[in-house]
Write a structure and sequence with these properties.
The chain has no helices and seven strands. The protein is mainly β. Strand 5 and strand 6 form a beta hairpin. It has a four-stranded antiparallel beta sheet, with no helix packed on it. The protein has a three-stranded antiparallel beta sheet with strand order 1-2-3, with no helix packed on it. It has two domains: 46 residues, N-terminal domain of TfIIb; 63 residues, N-terminal domain of TfIIb (Single Sheet), CATH 2.20.25.10. Helix content is 0%, strand content 28%.
Length: 114
């Protein structure tokens, strides 16, 4: 993991630069001529750690979302309503995309996938 580097001469921050001819990365001070060859090609790394509450979930009011496509070619197995919204997402523990449906009946909201 890369960390902040500071100039040995004047303690200013060293900024990443590249030498395209030699195909190397180095850090250079902007106030003096000090330069150091980088021991790692990683300049910046952003690690995102999710908590369980931040993961994507299907919400109850997804049926009223006007941006999602609707279909009348499926029937809800619980209430028999003939309209549902649908979208693709990755299912937990599975690879690839899954097609999800949500019943548009305001009294139902049943969710299923294909």
């Amino acid at each position: 993991m890369s960390t902040m580097k500071f100039c040995r001469r004047d303690n200013n921050i060293l900024y990443p630069k590249e030498d395209r001819d030699r195909r190397t990365l180095f850090f250079a001070c902007r106030n003096c001529e000090h330069q150091e060859v980088s021991d790692n090609n990683c300049v910046y790394r952003n690690e995102v750690h999710h908590t369980a509450g931040e993961r994507t979930q299907v919400l109850q009011d997804v049926a009223s979302d006007p941006t999602l496509p609707r279909t009348k070619t499926v029937r809800c197995a619980l209430c028999g309503h003939g309209e549902a919204v649908f979208f693709q997402a990755t299912a937990r523990g599975e690879e690839g995309m899954t097609l999800f449906f949500v019943c548009c009946s305001p009294d139902c909201g049943h969710r299923w996938r294909e």
